[in-house]
């Protein structure tokens, strides 16, 4: 059974398995529920149909009624809602219908005796076929078959479970998490959906939520390692390594935003981060002393460069797992944080889930059973690969361990004035296959750790710091992890041009998975190392200290990476190099970087409004083009440009020496070049200028872009400098602001005003007073007149 130790666990595991079972109710109750809209039988197969909204349904298939009618797994928090649904039976089968979705469980005739060949090759499971149709009966997809094959995993007798769905040749598939393979469209690929830090192209992250361009999405409810083959050989196949049932959700919607609203309904809303999260986050692997960190913060202010957050990365502790601060290197952390706050800055500190055997907490955690275990019940201490894996992993599937972890963070670290946590290694880095959590085997719960581990800080902060808005820097995700206030990044990627190219589709795949806040380490994390430049270097490396002199084009790479990340949901500089601040890339790079940074801060009114909209709708604001241009076939597999909110089309430069690039402007609208205001007709490829001092950037006709005055950080009051209007259609944009740091906005709703553009009258009107208190009329700047 899901969610508890099974009776098939071997005798040597029995005592530990019983303890795991006893903890179940406190961790994530998966009690049986006998109230689906309908459970129908198909010759021994039980099919349960549970509605969650007019356009959302869950289907569970099993041979055991308890499994067929059990609740969903981890990360799924919505309650069933059968309002507006009906159930009838006719010759075609059982039909469950609402205004947004129709589910037909096909009738199955009594099976005939197998032929001689079928005796060897026919499947043993009773056949099940389920079709799904959207509004007006539009066919969406069909589940053609299911799988439940017995095998043994980590001494547990279980099953490999899966399902096959119909495909059409023009269906495109997106999401499933983060895969740094350089491709956006999943069609024709096979995705190994598991968290894997060591994936050759860069870390993979499994979020088993897949969106199509045909008006539906599939959420696969199984946390074990899962293989997904979208549109491969005329079918889409899901297969999970451990389970006793098939469980999945189908979400139907007229737009992709309706699909993301469904995902948010099922797994939780994406909270609005503190406003500082939208500013520059400065990090380095690592600041070794308090003086080094404050010197960098002071350097930004002395140079007049905006900065919001300083990050203290790992090894500030006396030993891995002490959960303390080395007072030799950081003699006054509270004073350090007070100094940052005096300059309008906040702080993030890295907190790891690992505990060295010699640390003060190891014996306590081991005695309580709060560490991940091997098959004999002993703590797993490191792995035989990669030299940085010493230490045992806290078992965050155990609610008592989670509470203990948060208490230490609150009392030992946040008490020193640190604002937010960076929970690194949330894959987890100690791979759980063959090992055991309190809730069961690491194989069964392979992908769930990021959700439960980050909930330790999310829940603890909500309880003990209720007025402070939460933020967690997270390295991996699962269904629902976005609701914990996580900002994700693509992990420890290489520092070369190929790695930069791979970031763009990887990020679009992650946001297509319902994970709105994603970015990458600007400049890459690994020590700067790349092949010799093949083209003239566009940024003179003179004065650069961030890399070895032989990597002459690294300042150019950093400039292009920074320009790209300035148009991702968060902007963070990080890396394993001598210096990472804006002035460490040479005298030629610094003014270019400063210009891009100031543009980011000027767009803060636009960015913060996008964040508020995401918190309300669940829709990401870094958007692959298929989301906004569903009728344009040219954008279906276009993964190197994207929309950034409703206005901007961003086309990052990812080739060394490049000063122009091909850009596709989607059809159905006109476009303005941000830099020149030149207007283009959509539905065409153009050759866009890409001089080193700017990124190709276009604005959709019929857009409103509020621009603020540049300020040193988001702690300062920011008035609007202008409201740019790009004519071409009637449009609106809702400005939003609040105090930027507390949760008061949840009750008061903040301050907002909707701007409306009448294209025919060429007039902008506001629904009320602007959040800044300014009058809109003097601020309006109509582009092209």
Describe this structure in words.
The chain is an alpha+beta fold. The protein has a domain at 38-252: Immunoglobulin-like (Sandwich), CATH 2.60.40.1760. The protein contains 14 helices and 42 strands. A 9-stranded antiparallel beta sheet has the order 4-5-6-7-8-9-15-14-11, with no helix packed on it. Residues 1-35 have low confidence and may be disordered.
- Poorly predicted regions are 1-35
CATH topology of the domain at 38-252: Immunoglobulin-like
Question: Would you tell me the structural class of the helices and strands?
Answer: alpha+beta
Count of distinct strands: 42
Largest sheet: 9 strands, antiparallel
CATH class of the domain at 38-252: Mainly Beta
Distance between the termini: 67 Å
Spatial arrangement of strands, main beta sheet: 4-5-6-7-8-9-15-14-11
Mean pLDDT equals 93
Helix percent reads 10-25%
- Any idea what the radius of gyration is? 27 Å
Instruction: Write the CATH homologous superfamily of the domain at 38-252.
Output: glycosyl hydrolase (family 31)
CATH architecture designation of the domain at 38-252: Sandwich
Mass-distribution shape: globular
Beta-strand fraction estimate: 25-35%
């Amino acid at each position: 059974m899901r969610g508890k130790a099974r009776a098939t666990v071997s005798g040597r595991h029995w005592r530990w398995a019983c303890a795991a079972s006893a903890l179940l109710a406190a961790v994530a109750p998966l009690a049986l529920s006998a109230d689906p809209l309908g459970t129908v039988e198909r010759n021994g197969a039980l099919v349960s149909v549970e509605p969650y909204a007019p356009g959302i349904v869950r289907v569970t298939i099993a041979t055991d009624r308890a499994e067929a009618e059990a609740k969903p797994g981890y990360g799924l928090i919505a309650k069933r809602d059968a309002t507006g649904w009906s159930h009838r039976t006719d010759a075609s089968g059982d039909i469950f219908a609402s205004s947004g979705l129709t589910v037909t469980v096909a009738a199955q005739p009594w099976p005939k005796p197998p032929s001689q060949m079928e005796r060897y090759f026919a499947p043993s499971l009773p056949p099940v076929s389920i079709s799904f149709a959207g509004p007006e009966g539009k066919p969406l997809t069909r589940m053609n078959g299911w799988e439940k094959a017995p095998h043994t995993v980590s001494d547990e007798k279980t099953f490999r479970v899966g399902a096959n769905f119909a495909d059409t040749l023009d269906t495109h598939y997106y999401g499933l998490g983060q895969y740094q393979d350089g491709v956006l469209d999943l069609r024709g690929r096979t995705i190994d959906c598991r968290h894997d830090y060591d994936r050759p192209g860069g870390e993979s992250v499994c979020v088993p939520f897949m969106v199509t361009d045909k008006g539906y999405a599939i959420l696969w409810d199984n946390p074990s390692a899962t293989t997904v083959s979208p549109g491969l050989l005329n079918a889409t196949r899901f297969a999970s390594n451990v389970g006793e049932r098939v469980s999945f959700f189908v979400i139907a919607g007229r737009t992709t935003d309706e699909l993301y609203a469904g995902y948010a309904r099922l797994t939780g809303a994406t909270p609005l981060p503190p406003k500082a999260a939208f500013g520059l986050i400065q990090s380095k692997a690592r600041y070794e002393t308090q003086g080094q960190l404050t010197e960098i913060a002071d350097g930004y202010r002395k140079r007049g460069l905006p900065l919001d957050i300083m990050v203290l990365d790992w090894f500030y502790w006396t030993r891995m797992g002490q959960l303390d601060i080395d007072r030799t290197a950081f003699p006054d952390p509270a004073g350090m944080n007070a100094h940052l706050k005096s300059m309008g800055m906040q702080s993030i500190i890295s907190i790891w889930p690992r505990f060295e055997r010699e640390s003060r907490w190891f014996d306590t955690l081991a005695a309580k059973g709060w560490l991940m275990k091997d098959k004999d019940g002993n703590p797993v201490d490191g792995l035989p690969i990669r030299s940085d894996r010493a230490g045992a992993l806290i078992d965050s599937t155990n609610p008592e361990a989670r509470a203990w972890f948060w208490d230490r963070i609150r009392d030992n670290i946040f008490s020193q004035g640190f604002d937010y946590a960076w929970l690194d290694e949330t894959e987890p880095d100690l791979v759980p296959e063959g090992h055991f959590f309190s809730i069961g085997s690491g194989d069964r719960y392979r992908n769930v750790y990021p959700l439960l581990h980050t909930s330790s800080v999310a829940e603890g902060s909500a309880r003990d710091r209720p007025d402070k808005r939460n933020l967690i820097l997270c390295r991996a995700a699962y269904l629902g992890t976005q609701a914990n206030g996580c900002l994700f990044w693509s992990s420890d990627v290489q520092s070369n041009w190929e790695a930069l190219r791979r970031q763009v589709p990887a990020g679009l795949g992650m946001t297509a998975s319902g994970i709105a806040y994603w970015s990458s380490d600007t400049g890459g994390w690994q020590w700067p190392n790349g092949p010799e430049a093949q083209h003239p270097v566009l940024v003179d490396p003179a004065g650069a200290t961030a890399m070895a002199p032989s990597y002459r084009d690294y300042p150019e790479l950093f400039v292009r990476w920074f320009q790209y990340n300035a148009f991702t949901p968060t902007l963070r500089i990080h890396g394993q190099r001598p210096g990472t601040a804006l002035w460490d890339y040479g005298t030629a790079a610094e003014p270019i970087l400063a210009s891009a940074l100031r543009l980011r801060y000027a767009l803060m009114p636009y960015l913060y409004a996008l964040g508020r909209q995401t918190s309300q709708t669940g829709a990401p604001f870094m958007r692959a083009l298929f989301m906004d241009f569903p009728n344009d076939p040219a954008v279906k597999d276009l993964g190197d440009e994207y929309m950034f909110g409703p206005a901007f089309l961003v086309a990052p430069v990812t080739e060394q020496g490049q000063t122009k690039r091909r850009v596709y402007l989607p059809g159905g609208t006109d476009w303005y070049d941000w830099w020149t205001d030149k207007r283009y007709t959509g539905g065409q490829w153009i050759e866009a200028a890409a001089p080193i001092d700017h990124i190709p950037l276009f604005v959709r006709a019929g857009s409103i872009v509020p621009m603020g005055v540049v300020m040193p950080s988001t702690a300062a009051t920011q008035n609007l400098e202008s409201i740019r209007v790009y004519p071409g259609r009637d449009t609106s944009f809702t400005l939003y602001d609040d105090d930027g740091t507390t949760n008061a906005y949840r009750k008061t709703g903040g301050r907002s005003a909707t701007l409306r553009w009448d294209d025919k009258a060429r007039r902008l009107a506001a629904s009320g007073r602007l959040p800044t208190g300014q009058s809109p009329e003097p601020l309006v700047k109509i582009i092209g007149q």
